[in-house]
Specification:
The protein is of the alpha/beta class. The protein is 41% helix and 14% strand. The protein is built from nine helices and eight strands. Helix 8 (161-169) links the parallel strand 6 and strand 7 (173-177). Helix 1 (16-29) packs across helix 4 and helix 3 (47-53) crosses helix 4 (59-70). The radius of gyration is 17 Å and the shape is globular. It comes from Weissella koreensis. Keywords: Hydrolase. This is HAD family hydrolase. GO terms for molecular function: phosphoglycolate phosphatase activity.
């Protein structure tokens, strides 16, 4: 039986505007300047790693303020078109389905519960549940263990280079969620599959 493991931000839900706008406003409050390109580059990374990459001073303070600002932009989150139908169809197909995300459990609940997507999954791996996070293999390996997945029958669906690296480090295929990817050049044609729409993934799973 195929196992399909999903990233969340930029894959199931569009959350980039919330995270990046909140970060930009937080940095502005602290009179710190970073380019839009730099900010968008860290989307999908855990907060501490994002701030480390951006070389932000006083990262613990900035992290706390950033999290506090997220509520101001939460209304910008939306479920990508066709995603709900995709999840319903995959659930009917009785595929093993899990989530591996850089969100903490609290962040996931705050940002995603109102969309009701948690009902489609039997396993969740959140930030802090493994020693290393994406792009290391640890979170995906934990999900595979929990789902009792065969690596040759498992795919990780995501939207970032970090997602692809994590999948390949775990020895499984990576499927690009094309509907959530803005710049495909960073993948250097190394994605195993490219799904232009959520329905494309459903059709692939049936094969």
């Amino acid at each position: 039986m195929k196992s399909i493991i999903f990233d969340v931000d930029g894959t199931l839900l569009s959350t980039e505007s919330m995270y990046i706008t909140a970060l930009a406003e937080t940095l502005k409050d602290h009179k710190i300047t970073r380019s839009d390109a730099e900010l968008h580059h860290v989307f999908g990374l855990p907060g501490p790693e994002s701030l480390e990459y951006l070389k932000i001073p006083n990262p613990e303070l900035i992290q706390a303020d950033w999290i506090a600002r997220l509520d101001d932009f939460r209304d910008s989150i939306f479920l990508y078109p066709e995603v709900l139908n995709m999840l319903e169809q995959l659930k009917k197909g009785q595929y093993k389905m899990g989530i591996v995300t850089s969100n903490t459990p609290a962040e996931f609940a705050a940002h995603h519960d109102r969309f009701g997507i948690e009902q489609f999954f039997t396993d969740f791996v959140f930030a802090g549940m493994t020693k290393n996070m994406k792009p290391a293999s640890d979170p995906i390996l934990l999900a595979m263990n929990n789902l009792v997945s065969d690596p040759s029958q498992t795919i990780y669906i995501g939207d970032s280079i970090h997602d692809m690296q994590a999948a390949h480090n775990a020895g499984i295929a990576y499927g690009m969620a094309g509907w959530g990817v803005k710049d495909r050049t960073v993948f250097k044609d190394q994605a195993d599959y490219i799904f232009e729409t959520p329905n494309d993934l459903v059709e692939w799973a049936k094969q």
